[in-house]
Each structure stands twice: as C-alpha cells, then as structure tokens.
Design goal:
Radius of gyration: 16 Å
Structural class: alpha+beta
Largest sheet: 7 strands, antiparallel
Order of helices and strands: EHHEEEEEEHH
Bound molecules: zinc ion
Length: 162
C-alpha cells in the first residue's frame, strides 16, 4: 500500500510500538518529507503482510519504506532508499542506501554505493534506528552529488567510460 505517512497504520505494522514511539516515527517522517519536497519521489509504501516476521523470506522483507528518485539529463538516475525491514534473524532494522545505475562491462543493473543498516535491539529502539537512518538519508539529500560522483566513490566505472 502507498500513501502519505499519516496514512501509515503504524500500530498494525509495529504492534509492539508504544504511543511515544509512534510519535517519534511521525516526527522523523515529517523531517524526511520536508527534505524530499520538490524532488521526484514515490509515496511511502508499506506491507501489512510483513508486520509479523515472515516464516519464509526470499528477500529482505520490507515493512515500511520510501524511495527518493533523482532524475537528471540523459536518463541518469539516482535512488535513495529508507526502509524498515526484518533481518534474517527476525530483528527489526533500518536500511538507508544510495543506488546508481551500473556502467560496468558486465551489467549489474544497479549498485548500492553507500548503505547503512542499523538493527533495533534491547539497547536501541526502533524509533532510534529509524531516526539514524533518516538522518543519513536527509544528509545525502542536503549534499547532492551526481551519480558519477557516487560511482567514483564506490570504485565503479563512470557512465561515459565505455
Ligand atoms: Zn556494475
């Protein structure tokens, strides 16, 4: 399901979340929404079927996430992701990542050129990891670079190199 953060059924997605925790998630989401204003972005997207840790996971089960897409001339495209997910061990975690199109000789489609995963545990709550992931995302958005900058930083071929 997709929509504004106000539409996200937080208590359905995160049954263990306290009212204070829900407020904290809302506050973080408002900052993220402000940082992505005026950019080409999709809505928040959520997956109620992943509210409980799925018994079988072919890939990382996403519970709630956001994709911020920056298009530039010539079809170049940068993607910034912020997602609350389940880890393999059934813990909640936040993933923040920058994704660029691949220009290697072998086509990998896309590359994660910078990524952060923080796992919530007894010491670090879900709102805390969400805030840290969101700060990374808003930091990337506040300090824009083109896709070749990210590729160079990750040691990947630039777009016009072949
Ligand atoms: Zn590649």
């Amino acid at each position: 399901m997709r929509g504004a953060f106000d539409d996200v059924p937080l208590t359905t997605l995160f049954p263990a979340l306290s009212p204070a925790g829900a407020n904290a998630l809302n506050e973080v989401a408002r900052r993220v929404d402000a940082a992505r204003a005026g950019r080409s972005t999709a809505d928040w997207e959520w997956f109620p079927e992943h509210a409980a840790f799925p018994a079988t996971q072919p890939t990382t089960p996403i519970i709630l996430g956001l994709e911020v897409i920056e298009h530039s001339e010539g079809g170049e495209r940068l993607e910034f992701l912020l997602q609350l997910v389940w880890t393999d061990l059934g813990r909640l975690a936040v993933d923040a990542a920058v994704n660029v199109a691949c220009w290697c000789d072998a086509d990998h489609a896309t590359h994660d050129v910078d990524a952060l995963r923080l796992v919530a545990d007894e010491e670090t709550s879900l709102p805390e990891v969400f805030r840290a992931g969101a700060e990374r995302l808003t930091g990337w958005l506040a300090d824009p670079h083109d896709a070749d900058h990210w590729r160079a930083q990750a040691g990947l071929p630039a777009r016009w190199s072949r």
